[in-house]
């Protein structure tokens, strides 16, 4: 009886180990095929009577077969999948097409043409966007361009339908939602924001830590404003002050701040900036000065003095104003593996107990 039980337990433990190894692999394998596969394929031909037209799958931005990637992981999955479908990378330094093919594409009127501009690092570098072209469609485009020095209408339409644009910038923005982004001002502005950036002049009777809410993109800047007048260069955006020295401020409707605490930065010149005076709200709410020693210098140029107002002295405030509180959702995969491990350990302990009794 003991031998039979031992054999049964040994087999169960070995099975548990095998399941532990195979389960994550099966989850991954299933995830890779569950969103897009042969059964989801949707083909279309731009002109049914066109001999050189290809039947192509319907593409789009983070999209194939009218099915959109809903997460960064699914976007990565989509990029991996289309590479198996004879799609080629048309931009970035790792592009898989020739200069002759790029020239033909640039002369086609299609949605992906902006991503072929090497001078536009935002679209071209591959950090945020990748342009994938269906190879048979590309061959048709090149053939048309060589023959007629232009791309035919049906070629452009086919290109538009089949092209897949992998957009990682969407997930970059999502990752910022609700968080504080530091250093993105003045010379720290990303190049893509420089063209439409503008200047804001803050006037403050105290040393202040301001939390700016970027309303359109729903993340925050933390700006340090010394007592006086200070210029700062910011990206184009709709802004609202959400806190001053850890004291919350009514966004969008605070009458003690200029513009009812909603202002738009858009190409405001240095000599005519948007002016935000904190004096009224500081006096009304009794907001105290803080110690800015060791804090980043956020000023564009010099800070100019302004008339003093009574305050209660310097109070050091280091409390986080905005916190990213995204919780981690428990993984069903992790839970199952933990259960299997526990059962296997119990089995091993029981097996040793039986061996000792014998």
Question: Would you give an account of this structure?
Answer:
The protein is an alpha+beta fold and about 350 residues long. The protein has helices at about 1-35, 70-80, 100-105, 120-125, 135-150, 155-160, 170-175, 190-195, 280-285, 330-355, and strands at about 45, 55, 60, 65, 65-70, 85-90, 130-135, 165, 180, 200-205, 210-215, 220-225, 230-235, 235-245, 245-250, 265, 275. Among the domains are: about 40-175, no CATH class; about 180-285, Immunoglobulin-like, CATH 2.60.40. It is about 35% helix and about 20% strand. Helix 3 (about 100-105) packs across helix 5. It is elongated, with a radius of gyration of 30 Å. Residues about 25-30 and about 310-330 have low confidence and may be disordered.
């Amino acid at each position: 009886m003991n031998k039979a039980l031992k054999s049964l337990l040994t087999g169960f433990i070995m099975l548990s180990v095998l399941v532990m190894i195979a389960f994550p692999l099966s989850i991954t394998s299933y995830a890779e095929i569950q969103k897009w596969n042969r059964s989801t394929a949707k083909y279309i031909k731009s002109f049914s009577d066109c001999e050189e037209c290809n039947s192509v799958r319907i593409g789009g931005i983070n999209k194939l077969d009218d099915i959109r990637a809903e997460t960064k992981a699914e976007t990565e999955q989509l990029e991996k999948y289309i590479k198996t479908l004879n799609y080629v990378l048309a931009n970035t330094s790792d592009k898989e097409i020739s200069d002759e093919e790029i020239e033909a594409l640039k002369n086609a009127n299609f949605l992906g043409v902006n991503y072929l501009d090497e001078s536009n690092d935002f679209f071209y570098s591959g950090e945020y966007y990748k342009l994938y072209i269906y190879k048979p469609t590309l061959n048709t485009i090149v053939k048309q361009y060589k023959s007629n020095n232009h791309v035919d209408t049906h070629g452009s339409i086919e290109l538009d339908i089949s092209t897949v644009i992998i957009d990682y910038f969407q997930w970059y923005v999502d990752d910022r939602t609700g968080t504080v982004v530091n250093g993105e001002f003045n010379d720290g502005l990303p190049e893509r924001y420089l063209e439409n950036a503008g200047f804001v002049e803050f006037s403050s009777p105290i040393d202040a830590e301001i939390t700016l809410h970027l309303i359109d993109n729903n993340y925050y800047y933390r700006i340090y404003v010394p007592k006086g007048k200070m210029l700062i260069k910011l990206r184009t955006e709709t802004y609202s002050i959400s806190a001053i020295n850890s004291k919350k401020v009514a966004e969008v409707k605070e009458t003690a701040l200029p513009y009812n605490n909603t202002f738009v930065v858009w190409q405001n010149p240095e000599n005519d900036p948007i002016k935000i005076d904190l004096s009224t709200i500081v006096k009304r709410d009794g907001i105290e000065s803080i110690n800015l020693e060791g804090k980043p210098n956020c000023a564009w140029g010099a800070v100019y003095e302004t008339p003093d107002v009574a305050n209660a002295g310097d109070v050091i405030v280091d409390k986080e104003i905005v916190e990213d509180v995204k919780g981690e959702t428990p993984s069903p995969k992790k839970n199952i593996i933990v259960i299997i491990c526990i059962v296997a350990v119990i089995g091993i302990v029981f097996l040793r107990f039986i061996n000792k009794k014998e």
